[in-house]
Amino acid sequence: MTAARQSSTHTTARTREPDRNLAVELIRATEAAAMASARYLGRGDKNQVDAAAVDAMRPVLGTVSMRGVVVIGEGEKDEAPMLFNGEQVGDGTGPEVDIAVDPVDGTTLAAKALPDAISVVALSERGKMFDPGPCFYMRKTVVPPAAAGAVDPEAPVDALIAAVAKALGRRTDDLTVAVLDRPRHTNLVAAIRGTGARIKFLPDGDVAGAIMAASVEQIDTGVDLLLGTGGTPEGVIAAAALRCLGGEIFARLAPRTDEERKDAIDQGYDLDKVLTTRDLVGGEDIFFAATGVTDGGLLKGVRFGTGRISTWSLSMRARSGTIRFIQTQHDPERSSLVARGVAGD
Questions:
Q1: Coil, strand, or helix at residue 139?
Q2: Which of 32, 37, 64, 133 is the most exposed place for a label (fewest CB within 10 A)?
């Protein structure tokens, strides 16, 4: 796919546009994935975690009234047997939409039973979701709504953090910056520490970190902004959430190799462009759903009780600005969302 994919295919009839019922349907998909993957917490096999989540999410998405195309998925068709990029999902009726899925954002976190693993799905109108093409990484700056118009994403780290602090009416050493714990961020971490700001290191998966940074005005997450280089799929998924929350992501594609850079340029991508939230996910009919797999700053993880399985989810819709936190009790014997048995038991 090319950057030219951003041109929109519009539906003219109002009845063909995504409606509020999709919010509940997407939560069912993330709940199913979270419960299935949570069976493997602490077993040390991230592929097992991911496979369980994908196997649980896919059939639920297949029942949803939509004609969806996976723009952000588990990889290319030959590498991912299910939920691959370009796959069609839904029951073949309803609106034409783009879908971004991450059955478990933070598979390593779940495999090690560490905090902040979540299952996520995002949806937008057809043709409105950015396809990152060959670029696997992007540089990201995520700020809360109050700072969305007050920062220069190209400014040095100290100036950027100072701008966020001013917008929030706080001191720089009162702020906490989320950063993926990676060797590539050594210089970034030193610059953040030089401002006096605190750091929350993310072991894996930065979708939850981006949401925590953008939701400081709605949820007390203890995170005020996110900086660093992370996956482009996670950046697009986070952008869908930020469209609902009002926060902002500024991103620039970051090819890993000369070959990847050449492929991106050949396909029409502008590697110097700073992509905004609306560049990554356009339109107004945007939905986001997440369910906690492990406990974290955003959501509680799955609980397996006597006769009940409990999940905690987040449902958001951009058009209405609605943000819902949903706690659900599932009957393991009757719920169609509960996977029966655990492979290897």
A1: strand
A2: 133
